[in-house]
Structure formats: C-alpha cells, structure tokens
Amino acid sequence: MKFVDEFRAPELVAKAGEEIRRLADPKRHYRIMEVCGGHTHAIYRFGLKDLLPCNLELIHGPGCPVCVLPMGRIDDGLSLTENPNFIFAAFGDMMRVPGTRGSPLEYKARGRDVRIVYSPADALKLARNNPDMHVMFFAIGFETTAPSTALTLVRAKTEGLRNFSVFCNHVTIIPAIRAILDSPDMRLDGFVGPGHVSTVIGCRPYDWIAKDEGKPVVVSGFEPLDILQSIVMLLRQLRKGEAKVENQYKRAVPWEGNQAALRAMGEVFELRPYFEWRGLGFISQSALKIRASYQQWDAERRFPVPGVRVTDPKAAQCGEVLKGVLKPAQCKLFGRECTPEQPVGALMVSSEGSCAAYYNYEHRKPVTIASAAAL
Amino acid sequence: MCLAIPGQIVELDSRNSNLAVVDVVGVRRKVDLGLLQDEPPVPGDWVLIHVGFAMSKISQADAMDQMRTLIMLGETEAALQEVRGYGLENESPHQSGQEQKP
C-alpha cells in the first residue's frame, strides 16, 4: 500500500459546505453534538467550522476517554505503584494526564516502573516475560478498546498467568449521551455518532435517541467529507421533521456491530452500578467492571485501592467544556496556565480533547483544508 | 488509542491460531484475530486494527480510504509508531525470552 498525499475531493468538500448552508433554515439555530473526540480533532484540524453557517453550532461531546476519567481514578491507579515489584502499564495517551501528585510520566521520573504499551496484549507479554513482577494494565476507553482488554483477560485466564491484572476504567457511550440529553442546560438538535465505537456496538443502540428523544443520529467517518456529509444527512432529517439513525460510515461500521467483540465484553465485564465521569458527575450503569469469575485479574479486588475522590483544580472549567456549556477558549486557564505543553486538565492532554484540538488548530490558526477550499 | 489502522493479513500464525502477521504500509507485526472469530480473515484480507486487535474486515478500497483518513488527520506517524510498538512478534506463552528493562 502506498501513502496517498492528497486530500480527497476538495471540490466535494466545498459542495457539501454549500449544501449545508442551503439546508440550514436561517430562522433556526442548530446545535449538533459530535460525540467522538476523533471527530472533534478532525473538525478543528480541517477548520470545518469555517464551512458552516453561523447558525449551526457544533458541540463537542464526551467521547475522549482520557478527558472523562476523573483525577481520583488516576491517583488510585498510580498509588498501586508503591507495591514492590510492580509495573504500571498504560497507553501513551495516559502518560501526561495529571494526577494530584503528578502524571504517570512524572511517577516514572521518580523511579516507579511505568511503561507505555500500545496494546493490552503487550502488557500481558510484559507479565509473561517478567514472572517476578506484577504487571497492571491501566485500561481506559469506550467500546472501541474494551473488547481488546476483555480478550486479553480471557487469554490471561486461559494461560493461568497470575502476575497480571487490569485496573478497569472502561466506560460506555450510551449512558453518557443519555446524561447529556437529561441535562437541563443542554438543548441539542442531533448527533454525529461515533465511528469506531459503532464498529463494535453497531447502530441499534442509538435507536432510542431517535425514537424516544426525537433527535436524529448519523454515525460518521472521520474525513472532512464524511463529517460534512453526516451534517447534510442530519439537516435533511431535521428539515423533514424526521428523527432516525443513519450510517454514513458504512465502509467500517456494520449495522449490527461486531458480535464476537460484544461476546468477549459480556464474558469478562459487567456494568458498574454507577461511575464518576469528569464534568458529568456520577452516571448510573455507565462503566464496566471485571466479573467475579475474573477477580484474580482485577487490580481493584487484588490490591487495596484508596478510592479517592479529587475535585479538579478550582480555576479549571473542564467540566463545563466537556458538557459543551463553555467553549475551550472561554475557560479562564485556556492558553495561559493550561497549554498542551503544561496541561492542567485532561482536555488539553489528549489530541482528541477539545481544548488541545482548539489550541493546536484554532488558536494557532494554520491554513486549513476548508479555508483552502474556500479560496 | 482510538486510531483504526488498516492492515493486510500476510500470514496466519501456525503455532498460535489467534495471531496473524499484518502489513501496515510495509511494517509487519502480529495482531490478535480473536475479535473476528465469527468471520476469520485469511491472507490477503484487509482489516481495521485497534490497539493490537483486528476489529473488522474491510475491502481494499476502504482500507485505502482509511489510510488516507489517517494521513489527512496527521496520524500516520502515530499509527506506524503504534504498529511498531506492538510487541506480539514471535510470542507464544511458552517461548518468550526475558524482557529488557528500559
């Protein structure tokens, strides 16, 4: 396979922008939430807002796993590095996320054994190769990564590998969308649905958003054209007064999802009664815990965990930004105390966080595909 | 972490049926096929890979589209770094050597 170094169809991008402006009723104000942080990143990177009419507002959703993880969970996970012969393994995205006493990277600098892995299977390999150490995988992510953690635990159990555990922070997207829709200060007209989560869960779990809440959902790919086409599909529904679930990202998302992945999750995980989300508070049945049949591999059962709750730094307004109530630049710390180099909040750490995306692409204002297409 | 990386199945692992070698723009690594057990891929098939696990089978055209998406998003280096980082090569439970500490 060769790299292709050109943008796909800039003329189609411009046309989709025209179609959006044609479909948008100038007497209405549209608020559309893109659920997934990957979409947020793409929207800023390509300056897609420049192609949208000013009465169409994109609200950034909670779909950035690093961003919604409360600081107390990071502190809890890192506290276990005090155990002797202990390796803390996590994805690179986690490494610079601040806890109360520093990020995983800062713990590493202080001599704790903290490793970056690219796959939970790599953490399992670390455990195989270091039989005298305990390897804990600090698992984060939505349904995109949860099946991989699940299958890794199945492998650990099959092998009888005792020096491995998972500190499970996996969350599920549907209850977060429900919490946002239940929030009194949030009025939304429709959703650009997450692409890669939907490769696992399919499109049916969004049905209630259309049927019960009357809001259209379009599951979308990640190219500028995908996102703009999804907005066109949403506006067409809104214009006709319809609300249904549509799949714009058919090339990767089967309507029924990935059944083998869902089975793996069902085998290993069950729903927590409730879980705290940064910015959204406690949401019932919104996260996964490891079933009792896998308790030997559950770090939270195997080790005493302090279970700390930490409030975010006072001046930081991550919660309001996460809920879409504030834009990133409206936070008092944005671009001053809080930058991608010196992040105070998690939204400034992950490339999928709306603050980092806004800072890198809007604040610094490079030439974007949209502004190029508009020339 | 949420990148979906397109790769082509080169060969299945003869010692561990859960694993296969994939090629991602010339970088070859082993990935886990366990989440595709309902429609096991064969050499030549294209798959989307998340965190070391093949998550869905896709067409070649869709694989090209996905690679273009990564390029457009400026994520190719991150994707290749991730694939290079998968430590699954030459691994089976009984054959691993000692991990070098960094």
What does this structure look like?
The complex is a heterodimer of chains A (375) and B (102). Chain A has 16 helices and 13 strands. Chain A is α/β, with parallel strands linked by helices. Chain A has a single domain, classed as HypD, alpha/beta domain 2 (Rossmann fold, 3-Layer(aba) Sandwich). In chain A, strand 3, helix 5 and strand 4 form a beta-alpha-beta unit. The N terminus of chain A is likely disordered. Chain B is α+β, with helices and mostly antiparallel strands and 102 residues long. Chain B has 2 helices and 5 strands. Chain B has a 5-stranded antiparallel beta sheet. Chain B is globular, with a radius of gyration of 14 Å. The C terminus of chain B is likely disordered. Classes of the chains: A alpha/beta (375), B alpha+beta (102). Chains A and B meet through helix 2, helix 6, helix 7, helix 9 and helix 12 of A and strand 5, helix 1 and helix 2 of B.
Architecture blueprint of SSEs:
The complex is a heterodimer of chains A (375) and B (102).
Chain A lengths: L9 H14 L6 E7 H9 L10 E8 L1 H4 L2 H9 L6 E5 L13 H6 L3 E4 L3 H10 L4 E6 L6 H14 L4 E5 L4 H10 L7 E4 L1 H7 L5 H5 L5 E3 L4 H17 L4 E3 L11 H10 E3 L2 E4 L3 E4 L3 E3 L8 H4 L15 H6 L30 H10 L5 H6 L1
Parallel strand pairs in A: 1-2, 1-7, 3-4, 3-5, 5-6, 7-8, 8-9
Antiparallel strand pairs in A: 10-13, 11-12
Helix pairs in contact in A: 1-11, 2-15, 7-12
Chain B lengths: L4 E8 L6 E6 L2 E6 L13 E5 L2 E6 L1 H13 L3 H10 L17
Antiparallel strand pairs in B: 1-2, 1-4, 2-3, 4-5
